[in-house]
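[Q] Does anyone have a clean structure-token version of this?
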Amino acid sequence: MDDLHAINAAINAKAGRKLGSSIVVSIGILILVFGSLYLNSAIFGVLVWLALMVASRELTHAYKGGGIDIPENVIQIAASGLLAAAWFGRVSGLAVATAIVIPNILVYILVKSPKDFVKKSTAATFAIFYPGFLGGFVLLLAHSDKGLERILTLVVLVSCNDTFAYLSGVLFGRHPLAPHVSPKKTWEGLIGAMLATTIGSALVFHFALDKSFWLGAGFGIVAVITATCGDLIESAVKRDLAIKDMGNILPGHGGILDRIDSVLFTGPAVWFVLELIKRFSL
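[A] Here you go.
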């Protein structure tokens, strides 16, 4: 028992997270995601909206800690508008809503105070685009034919990437992937994620989507790139704002945004590839 505690403590120290708490939270999230989808896609949509509102709040609070003060309530209303447009107007609604919302936010910030306009307007645009626009693609996946299968595909891809990047990095990590952005990420972790996600993607494409193994395997490589980039982007934001986590609402993970950073970048890629497959009957 002491040896198990010692191993767990060593893993926690190297990964910078509590493994046990992380696993429990991850299982709870999966139950919420697929339980809500099984009951009704609208329930899932509400849960996504709530999660993204918390993520938006985390980001604006992190901004304030870094000396960038943007209106939290206005950002959340704007992000909610994008999500509603995605749900009711599909991708064209999301695109048009984004084109309308962002210029209006810029005008609002200018009228409120022109001081530090470039800093505040850039931060506000990112705050709307990141959780709001990118998160809209999760709703597009769910609110469509085979919504459950599409969300399952997204979850499998991101889970394989995050889990095996974590395990491979902890067990074999020696060479930093991006030391100036995220020192704990390693090339060994990336290779582990690439192998696992390629296999996981091939399986979910074949059994859940009834598509070719090879098509799934090819997209698995793309998903690793998008998920890793999403993680690195969020790490860069946190490093720039001098914070460790975006929040502490999820034990073992940090904040909501710490948990969904890979999802936000991979969701649009999954939607785009599945739409291409549907369009060209691949």
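[Q] Thanks! Anything notable?
[A] Strands lie at 176-178, 182-186.
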